Each structure stands twice: as structure tokens, then as C-alpha cells.
Amino acid sequence: MTEKQALHEVFYCSMLTPDLPPATVGSIVTLARARNAQYGITGLLVFDGMRFCQHLEGPHGAVETLMRRIEQDRRHTDIKIFRRGPLASRRYSGFGMGLAESEGPDLMAGIRALDGEAALAHFLALRPSFDING
């Protein structure tokens, strides 16, 4: 892997714009999976009916371009970035973009209450409990 293609990660949480139905997430993921695969981005999106928490990984430029797109997407509000930086190795090599639904809002609200690395560590600790569709 060249310097330009060094792995990068972003972990953020956001809220679904209030006037949109939760089913909106299905269309977001369908389009994102194809686009992310094209750019070498893998990760996990967890949605609890109103909150998104997403961990993205891949080439630096591709991940940052995607993050700018998410920050400008009107379907997301109240975006909070917990971790953004270099990554030694992929955590999601078994699938492209996984989607999991969280049971109730408490898990995702708990992550939002944390800061930086603690939020990411909590999310990663919860990963085995998610029913991931990849």
C-alpha cells in the first residue's frame, strides 16, 4: 500500500432528519454499498430508528471525500465526529458496508454521550451484539 493509499478511519454519529421515515436508511445503504466498494471503503453503519453511528475505513482520500458528502447530506443532522485519523489495519475485511439495527435508542445514545476514543472503543465492544447484514 502506498503512502497515498494508507488506511484512514472516521467514526461519527448523527441523527436522521426528523421529517424523514426510518425506511430512508435502506436506500442510503443500497447506494452506499456499491459506491464504497468502488472506492475501497469498508465499515459498519448502526441505526436505531433515529440515530446513525458509522465507522468507515479505507484510503484516506476516499474516506474524507465520503465524510464531506455525509456532512452535506440533508438526511443527516447533528453530526458528531469522534475519531478521524490513520488506521493500522482494517477491522471490517469480512464484508463491505455492514448494516445493523440497534434495539432501542439507548445503545447509540450511550455512545454519543462519550468522547473521542472512548466512543469508538464502546462501539467496537458492542459490535459482537449487532446482527450485521453485510
From TrEMBL:
One example GO MF annotation: FAD binding
> What sequence ranges are listed for the domain BLUF?
7-98
InterPro entries on file: Acylphosphatase-like_dom_sf, BLUF_domain
Could you name the domain of life of the organism this protein comes from? Bacteria
Pfam families the UniProt entry points to: BLUF
Signal sequence, renumbered to the chain: none
This protein is called BLUF domain-containing protein
